Structure formats: structure tokens, C-alpha cells
Amino acid sequence: MPININFECNLTTVFQDWPNLVWETQTGGGFGQALIARILHSKFFVFSADITRCYFRYLSPEVVTQWFTLIGAALYLVGLYFLLVRKKFPLLLLFLLTPVLVIFKFPLEFFYLGVIGVIVFGLVNLIWRKT
Amino acid sequence: MKTYIILTVITLLALFLRLYQLEKVPVGFHIDEAAIGYNGWTISQVGKDEWGTPWPVLFKSFGDYKAPGMIYATAISQRLFGHNDWAVRFPSALAGVGSVILVYFLTKELFKSALCSLLSALLLAVSPWHLQFSRLAFEGSLALFFTLLATCLFLLAIRKNIWLLVLSMLFFALAVMSYHAEKIFVPIYLTILVVIFWRKTLTRHGLASLLIGSLFFLPYLPTYFSPEGRARAVSESIFGQKEPAIKLFQENFAASFSLDYLFFRGDQNGRHSVKKLGELYVWQLPFVIIGAYLLLRKYRLPAIIIFGWLLLAALPPALVRPSPHAYRNLIAVPMWQVITAVGLISVWKKIKFRWILAGILSLVIIHSFVVYLDWYYTHAPRMFGPDFNDGYREAALYLKSQESNYGKIAVQSSLPEIYLKFYGGELQKYQFFKNPMKYTSGTLGLMPVWMVSADNEKIIKTIKQKSGDPIFYAYKY
Which residue(s) pair with B446 in the sheet? Predict the structure, then answer.
């Protein structure tokens, strides 16, 4: 298990996890073949995988569900879909940047404001489509 | 012709990946595999389960009442290949290979595209999620195979001959009989299919074939309502917990779509994944997003079937704990591959410098696959041996080899009796105990390492796991 078991994810936690993950993947708990392991599990891959994981963890439906219930998560996905369909790329980009802010230790509220925005967008578009 | 040659190559790859070192990796032999194997063996020999019940519809086993499909499949396999670990795991592996072929035909029915179908089959062939469970004698792989077969036949019935619905229903029934999670998935999914294709299914012939086909469910129907049939679900249910069921349901349901679980870390049970990689490859993530978007925009009917499938696949793990649960959610795996294939093909068609993309992507895909194989064959057997009861097989085989030398063998209950049953121990010689007891001199004892000091002079054998950690000591009283 990585050290960061609570999945609190920002730059600090990623850097904290890094040595542990590198050690773990390169040694396989002390039993790997060092050379092969170092080629397959290079520091670059481990770091980029962990930072990507950290970013997408915020966008994940189960995180949204914890705050906004399953209905909120469904509307969140609908909102993302309509952002793409309606080609609101600047808005979409803005939302996709919010997890980056959190990774750089800005308050989590930035991200949740973004999610609320997407949910409202999804809801409005659903209603608008019907009428 | 060319398509079928490629499909054959993919099938051979799937076969190799599922059969290579099948008896050795996953390391150890899990207690459920031993139970399925032993019940299969007794069925193949005398037509009764380990409790003496003839041809059961549910297998009592440890009191968890296992679905019968896999046990009967292992009975056939053991009849053909003998009573051994390989024969117990073989039906699951074979079903895994069958699923790869069926995904080809299912995708072909949905999209009429050979490229998309081949790609879906290839992705399933190398899927870590699917490989993990195709190499274990668990029920899920077989249930997935039957569900795919039933769906293919259903779509074929709609397109060609409505009477094929009878056959489709037979395989849906077999899917339900193979794994408990299908008891929830199949009825709802079948209803959705019937409604979607109501113009064909609700005709005179359609209804007649559905009615005839539903007869196949009858032998298993009582298990929906009997305490035995519900035993497993009740024991792990979200109902009656401290937290409200609705909250747990929502969290569990969403967990099956967690990006962390799907693409980065997988199920955190060592039996269900290698734990350090996702259930799907990371590189699939952008293509899943693109594929999902395109499905919604362009392919309405396949979208309903695929997303309906994925949502329903999240229901069984949502109703029990813990979640995400890659095994209970296994039914979802082919659809993630189909979505990836749709995404990949659309990118391929639109991009300008496609051969550069192909080169880069090939490197990424090969790297991910090799990393996975390295985890699966090198690291996981040593790191997650306890998840597979590593060392139990060796302990049982050692005790069996010593039976002629000792009048009595005392076994601490850390080694479940089912292992001695499976490996053919003379059970009348064994006595199982929980706490240390005094035995007459000359008795052979088997104890977990925490019960005996490692420097005890009476230890005559140390049973080790693949990692080198000792797990049992054989002890001479």
C-alpha cells in the first residue's frame, strides 16, 4: 500500500509517496530482478503515473458522489457531456484545471465550485432539451 | 478470411496467456478453489457433493452455498484431466478464451465493424482484469462467458431467427447458475433487451420462444428465495449496517466507476488484481472517454446495450460490501474494452500522422503490458501469496506424504480441512484443533508459525510461502 492511504492528493503527498512507490515497484517487496525492474518501473513512469492518478482522482464519479450523491454524479457526467456537445471548450478547460489547483494546494472548494457549475450546466441543458 | 486469421492469432494469444504456468501462477491454491475442486471431484466420481447431497443445485460447501456451474464444469475437467490443480483451473481459463472469441462476435453484431471487433477481442485477451479471473477457479469467468454467449445469440435471434431466443435463454440461465452476481444482472439485462427489441421479441414467435426459454430458469428459481440461495448476499449485505443502506449503495455503486480503481490501483484485494495497476490499462483512459462520447453521439442502440450493461454490472457490488470489487464487477470487463476500441478507431480515423501515433501508442501499450506481466509473474506471487493461501497446498501435500509414518496427525485449524480432502488425505488419521493441546508422543502436528517458536527443537519441517516467509511448522510431539 502507498503511504498516502487516505488519498489526500496534492504535490506534497505525491512527493511523499514517490520514494516508497519507486522502492516498492523496483524491488517488488525485495524480490524483483533489479535491472528488469528498473527498466520497467522507472522513476519517470512511477512519478507521472502517480501525478496523473492524483489529478483524475478528483474527477472520478465516486468523489463527486460523496459530496453530491449519485444523482449529482449523474448530472455531473451529463454536464461534462453537454459541455462537449455544445462545444463550450473554454468552460470545460476551466473546470479541468480546478484539480490542478488543488494539486498545487489551493483550497478544495475551487474544485467543488467547478463541480457545482458542471452539475448546473448539465441540469439546465437537460431541462432546455426537453422544453 | 484475413479477419478470421487475425482472430485465430488473438485466440491463440488469449489461450497462451491463460494457460501458461496455470497451476503455478497465481501462486498457491485458494480455499474456494480447493472447495470447488473437491466438490467437482466428488461429483465426477459418485455424483454427490462433499456433504453427500446428490447432484445439488446449490453446493453447501462452507455454508456459503456456491453456485453450481463452475463445480460441474470442474467435474468434467477433472474427469478428463485428472484430479489436480490444473484441471480445476482449466474451465475458468477456457471460458476466458471463449469470452475473447465471443466479444469479437458481439462487437460485430453491434457495430458491423471487423476492425472494432478484432480490437475489442485483442484488448480483452490482454486485459489484466480478465486475465486475473480467467486463471483462477472462480465462478465469474464462466458466468461472463455464458452471458456473452447468450447476448450474442439474442442479437442473432433478432437479426436472423427468432427461435434462437430459446438457446439464448438457456445460456442466460446457465450464467445465473454459474455465479450469484448474475442473479441480479441477468433478469434486468434480459428485460432491457426484450424491451429494446420489442418489435421482434413481443411477437407470437418471440413470446413463445421466450416462454420456452424461461423454463431453463425453473430449476434454479427457488434459490432466489431460499435462505441458502441468499446466504452469501445476506452475509455481506449493505442492509443492517451502521451507516444507512442508501448511502452505502451510492458509494458502492459509484466506486465501480472510480477512475482510481479502473485505471490506477485496481481492487485492493491481492486475489483480484496486482494492486499496483488499474483493472484497465492507464493508456485506455483517453480512449474510454472518447469512445463513451462517440457511443452516445453516434451509436444509440449499442450505447444503450453497452452502458446498460455497465450500469447493471455495478449493481451486485453495490448491494454488498466491500466495493469496488473487481470480481463481482467482472461482468463489466468486456464492455470497457469495446468502448476503448471505439475510441481508438475514431482517433485512428481522424488523426493526420497516424503512423507516428501508431508507433508511440504501440510502445506505450507494449510497455504497459510488459509491466503488468512483470507484476503478475514476478512481484505478485511473492507479495500477495497470503491472498491466495500460498503454502496451504504444500502443507497438505507434506502431511499426506507423512501419513504412513504417523498414527495420528494433529492439524491446527489454520489449515482448512478442505485442503486435506482435495489432496486426498486419509481424514480418519487427522484431528483438527484450535488451541494447543497435549498429544501422545509420536503424533505429527501442523501449526501456524505464530503458535510455535522458530527455534523449537521438535520442528521437523518448515512450510514456506513463495516469498520465503514460513507459514506452517510440522512438529513432532
Answer: B411, B474
- pLDDT tens digits, residue range B441-461? 788 999 999 888 877 778 999
ipTM at complex level: 0.88
What's the count of helices (H) and strands (E) in chain B, helices before strands?
A: 22, 5
Put simply, whether A65 touches B (Cβ < 8 Å) is yes
B370 touches chain A (CB under 8 A): yes
Mean pLDDT over each residue of chain B, to the nearest integer: 93
Q: Are B370 and B348 in contact (CB under 8 A)?
A: no
Give me the residue spans of the domains in chain B.
2-384, 391-476
- pLDDT, one tens digit per residue, over A25-70 is 666 545 556 666 667 677 787 788 888 999 998 999 988 998 899 9
- Residue B317 pLDDT grade (very low, low, confident, very high; cuts 50, 70, 90): very high
Interface test with A, best of B258, B363, B465 (most A CBs within 10 A): B258
Give the pLDDT band (50/70/90) at residue A4: very low
Tell me if B76 sits within 8 A of B67, measured CB to CB.
Answer: no
CB pair distance less than 8 Å for A57 and B367: no
In chain A, the residue whose alpha carbon lies closest to the alpha carbon of B293 is A81
pLDDT of B61: 94
- Report the predicted TM-score, pTM, of the whole model to 2 decimal places: 0.94
Cβ–Cβ under 8 Å, residues B290 and B296: no
What are the sequence ranges of the domains in chain A? Answer: 11-55, 60-130
Helix ranges, B162-244 (H): 164-178, 182-196, 198-201, 204-214, 227-235
Quick one: closest CA in B to A66, which residue?
B251
Check if B253 contacts A (Cβ < 8 Å): yes
| Interface membership of A37 toward B (CB under 8 Å) | yes
The partner residue sitting opposite B259, judged by closest CB among A33, A57, A85, is A57
State the DSSP H helix or E strand holding residue B50, giving kind and residue range, or none if neither.
none
- Going by pLDDT thresholds of 50, 70 and 90, the confidence category of residue B352 is confident
Is the Cβ of B251 closer than 8 Å to some Cβ of chain A? Answer: yes
CB contact under 8 A, A33 and B257: no
- Determine the Cα–Cα distance for residues B297 and B143; give it in Å rounded to an integer: 31
- Beta-strand ranges (E) seen in B396-458 are 409-412, 430-433, 444-448
Q: Which residue of B has its CA nearest to A37?
A: B374
CB contact under 8 A, A56 and B259: yes
Summarize the confidence of residues A115-120 as an average pLDDT: 96
Beta-carbon pairs below 8 A across chains A and B: 79
* Positive or negative: CA dihedral A48, A53, A58, A59: positive
DSSP B346-410: HHHHH-SSHHHHHHHHHHHHHHHHHHHHHIIIIIHHHHSGGGGTTTHHHHHHHHHHHGGG-S-EE
